[in-house]
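Record 1 of the preview.
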Amino acid sequence: MQQFLTKLRLVLAELARPGAMRDDWFAWAAGQTAHLAIGAVLAGALLFFLPALWAFAVAALGYALAKEVPDYFRAPGWAGARDSIQDALFVTAGAALAVAIGGAHDRLFAVAVGAAVVGLALGILARMARGGNGK
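->
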């Protein structure tokens, strides 16, 4: 049990460390895809207890306040703010996806998918332009 708790602490410490992954487009894309999934899972779970708009708001704002605001204070400045904003926006897009699917909102679904695809594409292209190789 002690070994499990030690490993869990290591995982949580790594998750608490902000990182923009400027030189690795693949790691950045994987991280942002994970943020999409976090938003979708949070909002999807909240849909069992709250109306769609509230589930979306609680998932998006709750995540931003609980995770990204503290991350910003760990890495203040423009780089930290940009990383926190990007992460929060991808969580918001994921929350919108869950709400759109759960409530059959076709337009919201299209906007959320479009935002995620455009955001991922721009982030990947920016990292590739800087010479990030994805390794």
